[in-house]
Amino acid sequence: MIFITAKFLIKAEDADRWPQIANAFTAATRAEPGCLWFDWSRSIDNPHEYVLVEAFRDGAAGAAHVGSAHFKQAQQDLPAHLAATPKIISQAIDQDDWSELGEMAVPGE
How far, in Å, are 16, 22, 33 from residue 1 at the CA level? Predict the structure, then answer.
């Protein structure tokens, strides 16, 4: 899979509304056949920062995502709400889902 984590620094005036601002892009991406997940979280240290954790089945699914109409629309719409260019880590890994964190296993589960 292609596993991606990106940090988005949102303008202060838009930070509380970011989930709504990014909603159409999020919904369209989640509907892609090659999208495994596309999940936003807000930083507990910086209320203007959102972290996106996303995964795509393979390189072809990732390429389809970047080539999609909704991605191109997001490239036009979302930067107006950003305080800085997002930071990203993108890696191809030999996995197709989350693994359990054995070091914090829940007894009896």
Answer: 31, 24, 13
Residue positions counted in the chain? 109
- CA distances to 48, 97, 106 from 101, in Å: 29, 13, 10
Kindly report, residue by residue over 51-72, the tens digit of the pLDDT: 999 999 999 999 999 999 999 9
Token pair 């807000």: residue: 42
Give the helix/strand (H/E) hosting 76.
Answer: helix 69-77
Tell me the pLDDT band of 109, cut-offs 50, 70 and 90: confident
Q: Is pTM beyond 0.90 here?
A: yes
- C-alpha span between 3 and 80 (Å, rounded): 26
